[in-house]
Amino acid sequence: MDKVVVFRVDASVEMGLGHLTRCLTLANALAGREVRSYFLMRSHAAGLRHMVARAGHAVRLLPDPAEPAPEPGDHALPHAHWLPTTRQKDAEQTCSALAEIGRVEWLIVDHYALDIRWERACRRDGLRILVIDDLADRDHDCEMLLDQNLIFQMEVRYRDRVPAACVQLLGPGYALLRPEFAEQRALLTPRNGEISRILICFGGSDPTNETAKALTAIAILATSQLAVDVVIGPSNPNRDSVHALCQQMPNVALHPSASNIAELMRGADLSIGAGGVMNWERCCLGLPVLALDIAKNQVPSLTRLAKEGALVHLGSAASVSADDIAAAVKALAADRARTRRLGEVAATLVDGDGAERVCRAIFP
């Protein structure tokens, strides 16, 4: 393999696993084109390095300071606290790693705490930079930008944020989904709008335990007609309590760190979950959704998807109760036509081939 790319990405309970997951998906797709990937992650993410190594990619940990020394307030970005050090120090460590690796074609950065200053500090001859972003809240110095979200006015939101020559890959047609989603999509049979199996999944961490809230909603419905699959990720801090709650309820199966999430989505009639990367996974499989936003950056895409008729956005998780979720499930169960339409609209938005489209853009 003579082509090399380097990913700069982190993951944690606060950040979730979405950034790392989509970078892994892209790295795996690039491996099929004989491209070798290195992952640069801060040492606080060391517990997740096995996810990268298991996929066959190299991992280098950037050492964290003994005491957090974040960016001074005057120059801090909204997500600056995601770094335990300054952007300049992170850039220096990244440059050192790049020098050790040798010739690198692309530096791919997926990190809300890094911006144009970091990217300029990492510049070197022959290196191109791809930024993966969702926020459009900071400037970038990059040859290519990927935002896989569906947002109002998405065509112009980066106009003044990137160089004029920057290639912009915008929209869910570029959604970075693992191959199993396209595989399961090919096996999909049309849903009739009846709700007999529900999938509950709030991503890799779920620090506020929305999973338990959704399970409480199912209990409120007090019906024996529902089967429930519950997926929790490896960073979930409420693992034990969720497990105990599942054991108390009939027809509920817990899937810790499930490797068959695409299959579970195909088998479900409705999903209760958050926004983020899961938006596009569920769309690919035409799965109707009751969605709660668990972070501000999830709101624009959920709002647009709700406007398109691809899901029901219940609002901020902090303001949505178990009773609210139960009422929403009951309403959809009573309106099969609406439930069916939600899935049909969602399926038109994502076809599962986004990673290949991005690969072709990076290495034509």
From TrEMBL:
UniProt xrefs under InterPro entries: PseG
Superkingdom of the organism of origin: Bacteria
EC number(s) reported in the record: 3.6.1.57
Keywords associated with the record: Hydrolase
Record's keyword annotation contains Hydrolase: yes
Keyword Hydrolase on entry: yes
Gene this chain is encoded by: pseG
Name of the protein: UDP-2,4-diacetamido-2,4, 6-trideoxy-beta-L-altropyranose hydrolase
GO terms for MF: hydrolase activity
